[in-house]
Amino acid sequence: MSGSQPMIAASEITKHYGRLEVLKGVSLGVERGQVKVVVGPSGSGKSTLLRCLALLEPIESGSIVLDGEDVAWQARGGRGERSLVPFRSQLCMVFQHFNLFPHLTALENVMIGPVHVRGVDRKEARDEAMALLARVRLGDKAERYPHELSGGQQQRVAIARALALRPKVMLFDEPTSALDPELVREVIDVMEELARDGMTMIVVSHEMRFAHEAADAIVMMDEGRIIEEAPPDRFFRDPTHERTRRFLQLAEL
Ligand SMILES: Nc1ncnc2c1ncn2[C@@H]1O[C@H](COP(=O)(O)OP(=O)(O)OP(=O)(O)O)[C@@H](O)[C@H]1O
Ligand SMILES: [Mg+2]
Question: Which of 48, 118, 120, 210 is deepest in the core (most CB within 10 A)?
Answer without folding.
Answer: 210
